[in-house]
Amino acid sequence: MNTIYNTFVNIESQEQCNRLKELCIDKGLNYYWNDDKSFLFEEYLWCYFLLDDSNCFLLCSHNYNKTEVTEEEFIKLLQLE
User: Fold this and answer.
1) What phi and psi, each to the nearest 5 degrees, are found at residue 25?
2) Quick check: is 1 in a domain?
3) Which of the chain's termini has less CB crowding within 10 Å, N or C?
4) In what order do the strands lie in the sheet with 48-51?
5) Range of the domain at 21
6) Residue 23: inside a domain
7) pLDDT tens-digit profile of 6-60?
């Protein structure tokens, strides 16, 4: 079963990244990398939004072998948490 903890979203823009970050914060999931570069789209060649091994939401260049979902699927999973 997919959850926000075993999936990732392939990010295509800074706006998409900002939107997902804010949705997580709004849901009360405030464990995210609080660093200026943690959510900058232009920092990465391939950019994934996910919860990493230290339980922090961030953008990164690898997907930790998680299951890819669309932004819409991620939002639905987020609503189930």
Assistant:
1) -65, -45
2) no
3) N
4) 57-60, 48-51, 7-10, 67-68
5) 7-80
6) yes
7) 999 999 999 999 999 999 889 888 777 777 778 888 877 678 888 877 778 888 8
